[in-house]
Amino acid sequence: MRSQLLPTATARDTGSFAWSLVRDRRLPLAVTVLAFVGAGLAGLVPPWLIGRLVDAVRAGTGEHAAVVAAVGTGISAVIGGLLTWVAMSALASFSEPALAATREEVFEQALALDASRVEEAGAGDLLSRVGDDVQSVSEALVDVVPVLAQSAVAVVLTVVGLVAIDWRLALAGLVTAPFYYASLRWYLRHSSAFYAEQRIAQGERAQAVLDGVQESRTIRAFGWSAAHLSLIDTASDRARRISLDVFGMLTRFFGRNNRAEYIGLACILGAGFALVRSDLTTVGAVTAAALLFHRLFNPIGALLGLFDDLQAGVAALARLAGVALLPRPAADPAGAAPAAGDLRLAGVTFRYDATAAPAVVDVDLTIPAGRRVAVVGRTGAGKTTLGALAAGVLRPTGGCVSIGDGPLPEQRLREEVVIVS
Predict the structure, then answer these.
(1) Which residues pair with 346 in a beta bridge?
(2) Residue 133 neighbours by CB distance under 10 Å
(3) Which residues of the chain have pLDDT under 50?
(4) Is 361 helix (H, G, I), strand (E, B) or coil?
(5) 307, 203, 205: which is closest to 249 by C-alpha?
(6) Which residues contact 1 (CB under 8 A, 6 or more apart)?
(7) Which end of the chain has fewer surrounding CB within 10 Å, N or C?
(8) Beta strand pairing status for 406-407 and 360-367?
(9) Distance, CA of 253 to CA of 263 (rounded, Å)
(10) Start and end of every ABC transmembrane type-1 domain (predicted)?
């Protein structure tokens, strides 16, 4: 049941969890930001030099300006490349340890989880988190974060460069901002639910496949193969349909972005024509402004487009944080004496689902201390369920399990009785 899945952290808790992973690595984070800013500034040089070259050609002094433009563009490209390398190296030096810490913390918490809670959620949900979700966060850190950082810096510095060239041309370019905003708002409104649903569907699919592998003999013995294959097919089809819906949403999103780009460039060229005609600016300034604005296409497209991968990464991180932030069972008080006496199951009944038939019904069993007991029976008779109830892995629907003088808390019971499958 979906209500039994392990929790997903809230946006606030996810943010706190992410910050806890990087707060001790602030120096490489600062180096990353500064290096990306430097690389972004280097990227502003070529459009500015080309604009100066255009004005120099119109004035008849283009030869010297052409040499300056060529040399300056080459130097800025080298500097930009070096700073990008520094930024990527610094980014790796804090993101990779953070990712390793995430893996370790989630795995450690998974091992400490209450066994009955894992049973309720299904092993597939937990496996999809420590597998698929960790992989999604890893891809976001390695592939998405660097591009997002570069793109964000490029957008901010390019806007500053446009203002420095001519504030009126910058104002014309900003006409496109509401269109980008509307596109992003439309995307965020539609995408959040899609990605959350996609992660849940992947967990349910993993659980269905895992059940089929682990319980294959039982499924075959009861002739449930066709029914379980149908269950796997339904879960897989649901995950597939959600993925196709996401792809269709992205196609519409990119179309909206292309429309915003066309509007912005048309406004800059139109305003530039009017300003040049009125001798309020130069052709070189309009050229530089148009090139700078055109330079925004890729960064803005990356910022908006990578929200796809970023949303998936954030959704995965929220699921990991949901596991990592679960409260751990309280440890036994120091010096607590081990329980002594017979293991008793009194009137124990258990149902895996409220609507399903009980797996065991009204079982009375006493196992004297130190005695070995073998439980035998046909497949599906409830042997595994009975062992899980005795060990405190499952909570009885009716009746109680006790050792010695009386019932023990579930955590103590799990410390006294161990299942070796």
Answers:
(1) 400
(2) 27
(3) 1-3, 334
(4) strand
(5) 307
(6) 353
(7) C
(8) unpaired
(9) 16
(10) 30-312
What is residue 86's predicted lDDT score, i.e. its pLDDT?
Answer: 92
Residues of the chain by 3-state class (helix, strand, coil), percent to 5: 75, 5, 20
Chain centroid offset of residue 95 CA: 14
Distance CA 23, CA 33 (A): 15
- The end-to-end CA distance of the chain, in Å, is 25
Pick from 157, 152, 164, 148: nearest CA to 43:
157
pLDDT digits (tens, 9 = 90+) for 265-301: 889 889 889 988 888 888 888 888 888 888 888 788 7
Single-letter amino acid code for the residue at 43: G
Identify the DSSP state of 306. T
- In this prediction, residue 1 carries a pLDDT of 39
Given this model, what pLDDT does residue 2 score?
41
Report yes or no: 301 and 257 within 8 Å, Cβ to Cβ. Answer: yes
Does an H or E element contain 348, and which?
strand 343-350
Tokens of 194: 């899609």
If 0-12 CB within 10 Å is exposed, 13-18 middle and 19+ buried, where does residue 404 land?
Answer: middle
* DSSP structure class, residue 349: E
Query: Residue 97 and residue 366: Cα distance in Å, rounded?
Result: 51
The full DSSP string for 71-99 is: HHHHHHHHHHHHHHHHHHHHHHHHHHHHH
Rounded-to-integer distance, Cα 119 and Cα 352, Å: 10
Closest C-alpha to 318, from 85, 106, 168, 88:
106
- The pLDDT of residue 329: 61
- What does the pLDDT read at residue 78? 94
Tokens of 288: 């530089």
- Domains annotated on the chain, with CATH: 2-324 (1.20.1560.10), 343-416 (3.40.50.300)
| SS3 at position 409 | coil
Phi, psi of 307 (to 5 degrees): -60, -25
d(CA 102, CA 96): 10
